[in-house]
Design goal:
Distance between the termini: 103 Å
Strand order of the largest sheet: 1-2-3
Number of domains: 1
Largest sheet: 3 strands, antiparallel
Keywords: Membrane, Transmembrane, Transmembrane helix
Organism: Roseinatronobacter monicus
Helix content: 40-55%
Protein name: TadE-like protein
Number of helices: 5
Length: about 180
Amino acid sequence: MSMRALVQKLTHRWRAEDGSVSVEFVIIVPFVLSIFLMGVDSGVTQLRQAFLYRAVDMAVREVRLGTINEAESLSKSICARTAMLPNCENAITVEMQPIDTSTFSGLDAPTLCVNHEEELTPAITFNPGSGGQAQELMLIRVCVVTKPFIRLTGFLTALPVNAEGDYVLTARNVFVNEPR
């Protein structure tokens, strides 16, 4: 093969546009796919949050009726009402405390959550009525820690994320402890 034929063959290969679409495909598809998966992850997380709020509302109704009087029963009742929270009973904390209506202190305290990295469940108070006082305002705070589908989604969408990168879903509810 002559040198001229070799140069022509290399020039032809250099100018050929075969495969140019596949380069664009390789660059663009992962980006588009990651945006799609982050949308799915955000949607599932928002659905879990909505299910948590509904489950807490239904469980608070049982507390008001007097059928639940301990934190373990309340957390089981919440977890039983939502199938969207995997491993719910090991990832939930429930706190109930009376609110002092003269100062409204303690409302700004952060909701305590389970820390799976240290296998730590925080000590919480559960006091449905603090001695059965009528017309007492009660605050319930619930926290559930769930694993994300894609770890990057929480940072990009400003979802609450703990130190391990898990989503922190919280729900609060207030009710008046009525006399029985």
